[in-house]
Amino acid sequence: MITKIKPDKQKAESLKKMAEVTLERLDNTDMEKYPSNTLLDYYDVVHKLIEALTLREGIKVKGEGAHQELIDYVAKQKKIDEQMMVFLQQMRDYRNRISYEGFMINKNYIHLNKEIIKRIIKHLFEQLK
After folding, report:
1. pLDDT digits 0-9 by tens, 18-44
2. What does the alpha-carbon distance between residue 49 and residue 17 come to, in Å, rounded to a whole number?
3. Rg, the chain, Cα only
4. What is the DSSP letter of 8?
5. What is the CATH number of the domain that holds 30?
6. What's the CA gap between 8 and 92, in Å, rounded?
7. In whole angstroms, what separates CA 17 from the centre of its chain?
8. Sign of torsion, CA 47 48 49 55?
């Protein structure tokens, strides 16, 4: 459910900082040895950055399906393009399967998609400037 709130630039900045810390930790991780954890971390970074974007605008998304709705909202606001949205929804689905079903990501997924994920993260950081 999307709700209007008072813009919260301080919380947005804190989320951005946490995303930076997670990325720093990822740089020190053997991503191909721990592909599921790597995907969880990358998704967490993306989610924090998207939430930071919406909080700055005074938008809060919560409740059932909030992550999906958050990605859709940011796409509708032209903060990300259709291709990014589809990819992020796929990442969200994998994240849910890992978290709730014990699904294991193949290391090839990280190898094949790392550059796309990094481009999306860079784009989101730029949106926050």
Report:
1. 999 999 999 999 998 999 999 999 999
2. 9
3. 14
4. -
5. 1.20.120.580
6. 25
7. 14
8. positive
For residue range 39-81, list pLDDT tens digits in order. 999 999 999 999 999 999 999 999 999 999 999 999 999 889 9
Domain total for the chain?
1
What element of type H or E holds 2?
strand 2-4
Domain that holds residue 62: 2-127
- Give the DSSP letter string of 59-103: EEE-STTHHHHHHHHHHHTTSS-HHHHHHHHHHHHHHHHHHHH--
Residue type (1 letter), 52: A
pTM of this prediction?
A: 0.95
